[in-house]
Amino acid sequence: MANALILQLDASGAPQAWVDWKDAVTYQAKDMVVWSLGEVEFTFYGGKSRLTGEQSSITTASIIAVKGHSGSKSAKYKVPTLTNKTLFRRDRHICAYCGKHFNFDDLSRDHIMPVSRGGADNWMNVVASCKPCNHRKNDLTPEEAGMKLLFVPYVPSKYEAMILRNHKILADQMEFLMAHVPKNSRLWENA
Ligand SMILES: [Zn+2]
């Protein structure tokens, strides 16, 4: 469990970052945790006290709200970095053209408007596509290729971005984040 990440929120409950247990313990020690959530608690043990012989320990929850980050200016939403990993996760490893499920290695990043024709490499112009579909589409738009997009691209929300960024999300953290994910998100499809 020591490698599980802790979900850091601001005092209003907006997600800020995934932090490791050392950061969480620092927030606890500095009395910066205003409230916490989650079923999972992590306890970390320090050295033994020379006076009492008791081992020191500190406990942190899997979701913590940290003060000093609220006011939402510091919590400005950053659009998640577009990588094949985050894209395929957004699209649930489903090809946007044939609708079948594929492994990471069998998918590719398809630019709806091809880059060679001025299409942008951003969230709104890309979908996951299996290699045969991508090959068939070639340097054409879906209309020109006679291929229909089964779903439309979108920019992940702040909550989705947090989900896309971490592969080892605990059940209670996932539940918290999914409660804020828009109902039209594809993340719901296998949630
Ligand atoms: Zn396909």
List the helices and strands and how they pair.
Elements: E1 6-9, E2 15-19, H1 21-29, E3 33-48, E4 55-66, H2 84-90, E5 107-111, E6 126-130, H3 131-137, H4 142-145, H5 158-165, H6 171-178
Parallel strand pairs: 1-4
Antiparallel strand pairs: 1-2, 3-4, 5-6
Zinc ion binds next to strand 6.
Report on this structure.
This protein is of the alpha+beta class and 191 residues long. It is built from 6 helices and 6 strands, in the order E-E-H-E-E-H-E-E-H-H-H-H. The chain has helices spanning 21-29, 84-90, 131-137, 142-145, 158-165, 171-178, and strands at residues 6-9, 15-19, 33-48, 55-66, 107-111, 126-130. Strands 2-1-4-3 form a 4-stranded mixed β-sheet, with helices on both faces. The chain has a two-stranded antiparallel ribbon with strand order 5-6. It is elongated and about 75 Å long. It binds zinc ion (ZN). Residues 95, 97-98, 100, 129-130, 133 line the site of zinc ion (ZN).
